[in-house]
Write a structure and sequence with these properties.
By secondary structure, the chain is α+β, with helices and mostly antiparallel strands. It has eight helices and six strands; from the N terminus they run αβααββααβααββα. A three-stranded antiparallel sheet has the order 1-3-2. It has a three-stranded antiparallel sheet with strand order 4-6-5.
Length: 176
């Protein structure tokens, strides 16, 4: 398949998906070796950086078609604000702990926060910002939680490596 057709197919798939699509899945669907697809995607991402249209972002092993932040105000003005509830302080605290300590159990989150976190973890699961990441090999086999691809998109990150470093803790102080 020629390069222009591959890129056209990718753009259409990403547009319809509305969320990240794994590069391996695109490779399989298009019958293009993953290495070739990665190279084409990198060239297309760089080419689109210089333009004003939609861009393609990498999010871990996936790619997504995205709007540009510089058009956010115009988009909201034209289409209206998304009716998404802002994250509460408790949600942000819990999310920070999970992001930096993942995978982590609810009990470990509560130990750090000093308060119950069942409701907050449930709300973060409902929003898709975190997900179950297995079970801990411990008494009762508690659930482990980790951040999701939705978390990366929400905070405009391509990977967890882009999280800012934690500040140094003062003696006797616990930081996430």
């Amino acid at each position: 398949m020629e390069e222009a057709k591959i890129l056209g197919a990718i753009e259409n798939i990403l547009f319809m998906a509305g969320e990240p699509v794994e590069v391996a899945e695109l490779s399989r669907a298009l019958g293009v070796p993953k290495e070739r697809l990665d190279a084409l995607l990198e060239a297309e991402i760089r080419r689109r950086e210089a333009g004003d249209g939609l861009c393609i972002r990498r999010i871990e092993g996936s790619v997504q078609l995205c709007t540009r932040p510089k058009y956010a105000e115009l988009i909201v003005e034209t289409l209206g604000e998304k009716n998404e509830e802002a994250l509460s302080r408790a949600m942000l605290e819990t999310l920070s702990i999970i992001a930096y300590r993942q995978p982590v159990t609810r009990e470990e989150v509560e130990q750090i926060r000093g308060v119950g976190s069942s409701y907050t973890i449930g709300a973060l699961l409902e929003k898709g910002l975190i997900e179950e990441a297995g079970r801990k090999e411990a008494l009762g086999r508690p659930k482990l939680y980790a951040t999701s691809a939705v978390f990366l998109r929400y905070f405009d990150l391509t990977s967890l490596a882009e999280l800012p470093p934690l500040p140094e803790a003062e003696p006797g102080e616990t930081i996430v």
